[in-house]
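Researcher: Sequence of Methyltransferase type 11 follows. Predict its structure.
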Amino acid sequence: MAVIKSPNIWNWPEVYEAENRAQDAHDALFTALREVADWAGKDVVDVGCGTGFHLPRFATDARSVLGVEPHQPLLPAATARVRNLPSVSVALGSAERLPLPDESVDVVHARTAYFFGAGCGPGIIEALRVLRPGGVLVVVDLDATASPYGDWMRADLPHYDPVAVERFFDAQGFDLRRVETLWRFDDRRSLREVLSIEFSGKIARRAIDSVPGLSFPVRYRLHTRRKPTGLINLR
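Model: Prediction complete. Tokens:
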């Protein structure tokens, strides 16, 4: 299966950097991640790592971290970001072809990479292949059932059905946790630029006009699936 283009970070990596800095101002998402997939002393792979923004965060107490990115032009920035972190490496690869042997990691983290649910089956199977027994696949996406971000997203993608996505992950044996947090920008320019790469013109203008300050609430979904530790292998 061909890699699905991620137009925001692929086309505007500098703007997406500002988006990453703005996300999760309350640190609620990383706190919840730690609770569902604690990576302390463990081996982590970040699927679709982009420019490697989250790799140093995992590296603070993981045993090893591998960032996997399918878009080769983003790899130099990711590599430069972790140059002084000996436990972190970056490699070209995709969710369906991870450059890892079987049962070699404890946490597979995929953030805003599995938005549409259906069609992600090969990536889920591949994640379960590289996970050790008891390891966790955690899929992080934006909860499009929550206002205001979800309203903008559904208006921009009228065929996107967030309830169907939840049903998909539920049918694949994932647990669901919702996390309320905040996007907070340094200035209005950054806010405008980020919303302009996330949404088409009309919806972006609507979103920008509806935010009076520098922040707005955003809800995420954490879909988690743990690999069995017994004799049954569900790969």
